[in-house]
Amino acid sequence: MKLKNGIILGAIVGFTTNIIILLFLPSRKVVCRDGWESPSIGIIGACSHHGGVEQDTRLFFAFFFSVFLGLVVTIWYISKQYKEDEKIRNIKEAKEKERLEELKRNSPSCPICSNYMTKRVAKKGKYIGKEFWGCSNYPKCKGIINIDLQE
Ligand SMILES: [Zn+2]
Description:
Number of domains: 2
Order of helices and strands: HHEEEH
Oligomer: single chain
Shape: rod-shaped
Bound molecules: zinc ion
Strand order of the largest sheet: 1-2-3
Radius of gyration: 36 Å
Number of strands: 3
Structural class: mainly alpha
C-alpha cells in the first residue's frame, strides 16, 4: 500500500511537472540541423537535405527532470511512511511496557512461582462471574488468589 501510494504520487507529480514545463516552455523556431530556415520547416521531409529537423533538446531535459522529480517524491513519500510507522510502533511498545509495569506493581505475586498476577473472571465452577488473581504464567502455573476470600 505504501509502495503503491508512493508510486502513484510520484507519477502524478512527474506527469504534472512535465505538463507544466511544456505549457510554459517558450516556443522555439524550428530549424534544420544545419541551421537552414524555410517556411515549410517542420513538415516531414523539409529538412531532408539539411541534416533533418533540429531536435528540441529542452523536451528531453523536461522529460528526464519530470521523471527524476517523480522518483524523488516516491522515495520521499515511502521513507516518510516507514518513519511514521516506526514512530507509532515505538509509542505502542512503550505504552505496552508501561501497562505491564503498572500491572506488575498493582498485583500480588503468585503464591507458587512468585510471578506477577492478572485479574481474571471465573468462567466456570461455583465462583463463576467472580474476579480472582491468576498467575501470569498460566497455563504453566495454576497459582490463583481468590479476591473474595482475601477481603
Ligand atoms: Zn505462578
